[in-house]
Amino acid sequence: MRPLYSVAEIRKLEQAAFAEVAPGSLMREAGRAASDVALSILGSGGLRRALILAGPGNNGGDALEVAANLADAGVAVLVAHFPGRAAPSAEAQAALARAQASTARFITLIDDQLPEADLIVDGLFGIGLARELAGEFKSLVRAVNARGGKVLALDTPSGLDADTGGVVGGQGVAIRATHTVTYIGDKPGLHTADGREHAGQVTLATLGLSTPDTRLHLLDPSAFAAYCQPRSHSGHKGSYGNVAILGGASGMCGAPVLAARTALLAGAGRVYVAAIDPALALDPVQPEVMYRSAEHVEFNQAVVVAGPGMGDGKAARHFLQRAIDAFSPLVLDADGLNLIAHDEGLRHALMHRHEQPVLTPHPLEAARLLGMTAAVVQQDRLSAASELAGRLNAVVVLKGSGTVIATPEGDMFINPTGNPGLATAGTGDVLAGLIGALLAQGWPRSAAALGAVWLHGAAADRLVAQGIGPIGLTAGELPAAIRAELNRLCA
User: Fold this and answer.
1) d(CA 96, CA 465)
2) Confidence band for 45, pLDDT divided at 50, 70 and 90
3) Please, is 121 exposed, middle or buried when counting C-beta atoms within 10 Å of its C-beta (0-12, 13-18, 19+)?
4) What region, left, alpha or beta, does residue 208 occupy, with left being phi > 0 and alpha being psi -120 to 50 degrees?
5) How far is Cα of residue 35 from the mean position of the Cα atoms in its chain?
6) Which of 13, 65, 362, 482 could crosslink 459 through cysteines, CB 3.0-4.6 Å?
């Protein structure tokens, strides 16, 4: 898995490197790495045109190195340079001299009218931006975003917080890049919140520096591959565990149906719906799922997924208390999370249960649990997930673009799979059922959460690649695609 680093950590690595390498070498290496990416985007042959936006700091110096390199490669280069008031660093001054000595042509943009270009290189501001873009830079970024086309951001798209993935400032703007080349170490903000919308395809250029491991990683299947094994010929339904979906209050029967179907297609040996409303008695599409009144389900004998369509009535609270008290793995989703947020007794019982639960909140549910607004959660998704995991002694899956998974021990992961097709009702129920199925098959809590999140997103990506979505993709289409992804990984 690729480690992710905060801006503060990157700054420390930079300072250590400056003491060991020749002056200007890191900037020249950054320019070479970005130029390679730019040339791969531009392709070969014919007239190739690039517009370089070079800001006042070292990010602008990187951009000027790119300008010189692309010009040397035969690209028609235009440079819009914004030197700023402060004196540039020696490295940035040397990069400017290289660009001026090349065939690159320096221009002044008038009223943010952008010249024709096959690629725009964003080197306005890097990871150190602390204030929202304003004035000419705000107008320029808006013009770039309105123009569209290929945009390569250097280190991070200008205006994006590299730590949180939020756009800097309440009324701020950020470059929407199609590609980002990021330096030394990858940054979490490129992969969560607004980051995926703005960073595009991310390439890491280490600049030849070694980096230490961290407790924050970009998720990939290596995190859970050890538990993804082929089925044994001697296995039977009892080998793969039981899952009980607790939910289905009156008028909300679809949610447990989706969770149950997913648990079944993801390999659980037996799946029950523990229905709060006993009118829910059969799934004619998936008759293998067993339906029972929640009153008659023994929660100690199954992984319990509590919350889909549960409602907030007295019966829901009663059965949730039973599920929390049971000595079995527990996944809490949807209404189960809302009940916990508003009931101190349930929350205390959850925090002190014998086995850590897995919680799967979306931002609003996380906000209720933390006593804040969803906007505050989204401003720093990593901190919110970490705080929630520690406070409730749970593995937390904070859903959204770049889902964040946090453990009480301090490990954190950002998931790169998935697409906007998942922004539809019921996909969270599918995810909860999938986590339950993996737990039932013996996966540890963290591995089950990580594997389920990755598979859930990969299934949506598979469907979109087949032309099913993202517009109009439905939650009910996910379970079969999850089954296909799971079998592919566990073959």
Assistant:
1) 43
2) confident
3) buried
4) left
5) 27
6) 482
Whether the full predicted model's pTM is greater than 0.85, yes or no, is yes
pLDDT by residue (tens digit) across 165-220?
Answer: 999 998 899 999 999 999 999 999 999 999 999 999 999 999 999 999 999 999 99
Neighbours of 444 (CB within 10 A): 15
Q: H or E stretch including 447?
A: helix 445-465
Parallel, antiparallel or unpaired: strands 201-205 and 179-183: parallel
* DSSP-assigned states of every residue in 146-208: HH-S-EEEESS-TTB-TTT-PBSSTT------SEEEEESSB-GGGTSTTHHHHH-EEEEE-TT
* 280 has pLDDT over 80: no
Handedness of CA 382, 2, 57, 73 (dihedral sign): negative
CA distance 77 to 290: 66
Domains of the chain: 2-217 (3.40.50.10260), 221-489 (3.40.1190.20)
Cis previous bond, 212, omega within 30: no
- Dig out the tokens for 302 from the structure: 């199954």
Amino acid letter for position 4? L
pLDDT at 18 over 90: no
Q: How far apart, in whole angstroms, are the C-alpha atoms of residue 257 and residue 485?
A: 21
